[in-house]
Amino acid sequence: MNHQLTVVDHPLIQHKLSLLRRAKTPTAVFRQLLREISMLLAYEVTRDLMLTRRRIETPLMEMDAPCLSGKKLALISILRAGNGLLDGVLELIPSARVGYVGLYRDENTLQAVEYYFKVPAELEDRLVITLDPMLATGNSVVAALTRLKKAGARNIRFMCLLAAPEGVEHLYQAHPDVPVFTAALDARLNELGYILPGLGDAGDRLYGTK
Length: 210
Ligand code: URA
What we know:
Structural class: alpha/beta
Strand order of the largest sheet: 1-11-9-7-4-5-6
Mean pLDDT: 95
Largest sheet: 7 strands, mixed
Bound molecules: uracil
Distance between the termini: 34 Å
């Protein structure tokens, strides 16, 4: 199992996740809960960001104040469900640069097929946080990370809402250098590649499509 797997078990996240999992939770509430959880997850994903000291003036005196150092982060949303995590993370890190990777899942092979790729410049100098709520088979995220590395990314973290053990293992085999942050590690996948107990199709629940 992935030694770089962090299950963020903060009680607020766990409570919100239980509300979000319910089949009867309406679209607007689902979206809001996902936004709230993504902010809380982002807090943990960014816990060890490097700081530098900068001279500032408070109303009373000068001080060397801690500020984030280095280039702006890059947030990469794996379309379309990744956007459900993106808004909350951007609220916490508003100056982050944003990119999108468009992949669809071939329903027969469950393999990821790329249809869109647009990412910030100088990826190699940024912390890249890749976002997709569901780590199921891992096919999409493995393909997305391979593509991001080809574009120069070297320091990558993956943030999701739910992970299946199969997906975690797949991701670890393909990209052992990428730490994974999730709100829960669920039991397994079903024969259609859905996470159990899961929450259903995250994109459909987020956007009210079916
Ligand atoms: N994608 C989803 O949206 N849900 C799953 O359970 C698996 C993949």
